[in-house]
Amino acid sequence: MRRFKFRLETNLKVVQIREDLQRQELQQIQTRLTEARDTLLRLELQYRGLEQEIRDISAKRLDLDLLRLFRDYLGVVNRLIKQQHLVIRGLEAELAECREKLKKLLMERKLLERLKSRRWEQYQYETLVEEQKLVDEMGINQYLSLRSN
Question: Residue 67 in contact with residue 58, Cβ under 8 Å?
């Protein structure tokens, strides 16, 4: 009796490996996105703190050099916030693309698994038919040998 062999087994394994790699990439992008959002939050807090310090300095005393220094630094932090927003948008787009690739790989793997399952059922049916033929043939041979005696 022949063994079960799925011709696309190699393809299935390759797709599973690609799916695992895609999941790892997705996790890495999600981690980078979380870090980028944390950085943005820290920058926004820093910006608000600087604004408060400027208000405090303006209310207490009129030190124009210090005030100018804080305002310049406030502009730098504001630019960093805008850059961080761009980084986050880029990572979100990358994340969406990665999810789409993973979705396609999942569909491909499920298709191959369904084909393998159908092929297994077909193999089981063919094996059963073969076994039944063998049993029938043995029964006929036994009947004929008893009849000839």
Answer: yes
Please name the residue that has the structure tokens 């011709």: 7
Which residues lie closer than 8 Å to 119 by C-beta, 6 or more apart? 4, 6
Whole-Å CA distances, 69 to 9, 64, 66: 67, 8, 5
Residue for token digits 């703190």? 49
- CB 95, CB 30: distance < 8 Å: yes
> Quick one: CA torsion of 72, 73, 78, 83, rounded to 10 degrees?
110
Q: Which residue has the tokens 């961080």?
A: 84
Q: What is the DSSP string of 3-51?
A: PP--TTHHHHHHHHHHHHHHHHHHHHHHHHHHHHHHHHHHHHHHHHHHH
**Which sign, positive or negative, has the C-alpha torsion 15, 90, 45, 43?**
positive
Q: What is the mean pLDDT of each run of 10 residues along the chain (149 residues)?
A: 88 97 98 98 96 85 80 94 98 98 97 97 94 91 83
Q: Is there a contact between 42 and 101 (Cβ–Cβ < 8 Å)?
A: no
Structure tokens at 133: 């033929």
